[in-house]
Design brief:
This protein has about 260 residues and is of the alpha/beta class. It contains eight helices and seven strands. The chain is about 50% helix and about 15% strand. It has a seven-stranded parallel sheet with strand order 3-2-1-4-5-6-7, sandwiched between helices.
Length: about 260
């Protein structure tokens, strides 16, 4: 899919990858851009830079996501590309206990990292199915394909997000609807916050680098978009010998905990 001439929604668009996507889609000639974020003022500032619209949106609230979709459809008649990009990282409360974080943290991670994608699909699918055309780009993470040392919540919810992306793609392929999941490792965003850890072993990309990979992936209409291409090799190693992979990850965790990564 070429972004030129398309009506695009980007959640989490006030900063980081979302902001970079908005800026790059503008350069690619998008017909309309709607920027959504819990930070309403930040979303407004980004939208003004590209002549787009903004809406303060809490993606954990289905009514907010429905309102976002209605804004696009009422103003422009359609949603061509819905970028469900907002995400949240919640670290383990006790690094020696994967189940240590309280329910509030799990509910936040589930709401932002999983249900926001579900709400986006519920809001945009009816119009896309009626037209026989549409595209979802769901920002997930390499953690959804591999794991994230120090955050059971992030690992678990990102795995769930991969599963929902697969279901979305399988169920609606014959409706003419396309799906891509974006799965980077470390990106220089507020979420990373300068932290060191396992996600950084293959280098930290800029949000603009990720946006470039996204444009290339959308052009090819590939389901899996990997800004860090090494992730594919790691996936293959994981599936070829799961026990060996678990052992390797445990050794990597030891290095992280010792401050050697």
């Amino acid at each position: 899919m070429k972004v030129e001439g398309k009506v695009v929604i980007v959640t989490g668009g006030a900063s980081g990858i979302g902001k970079a996507l908005v800026e790059r889609f503008h350069k690619e000639g998008a017909a309309a851009l709607i920027v959504a974020d819990l930070n309403g003022e930040g979303a407004k500032a980004v939208a003004e830079q590209v002549g787009g619209l903004s809406l303060r949106t809490d993606v954990t609230k289905e009514a907010d996501v429905q309102a976002l979709a209605r804004l696009a459809e009422d103003r422009f008649g359609r949603i061509d590309l819905f970028c469900s990009n907002a995400g949240v990282s919640v670290r383990d409360a006790d690094m020696e206990n994967a189940a240590s974080t309280g329910n509030e943290g799990w509910e936040l991670g589930w709401g932002v990292n999983v249900m926001a994608h579900v709400y986006a699909a519920r809001a945009a699918l009816p119009g896309m199915i009626a037209r026989g055309d549409g595209y979802f780009l769901n920002t997930v993470s390499a953690a959804g394909l591999l794991s994230q040392i120090g955050s059971a919540i992030y690992s678990t919810t990102k795995h769930a997000a991969v599963g929902f992306g697969e279901s979305l793609a399988i169920t609606h392929k014959n409706h003419g609807i396309k799906v891509s999941i974006l799965c980077p490792q470390a990106v220089d965003t507020p979420m990373l916050g300068g932290a060191q850890g396992s996600q950084n072993v293959d280098g930290v990309l800029s949000p603009a680098d990720v946006a470039q990979t996204v444009v290339e992936g959308l052009d090819l209409e590939t389901f899996l978009i990997l800004p860090h291409p090494q992730v594919l090799t790691y996936m293959q190693r994981k599936t070829s010998d799961y026990d060996r992979w678990i052992g390797g990850m445990a050794r990597l965790r030891d290095k992280v905990m010792a401050g050697r990564v």
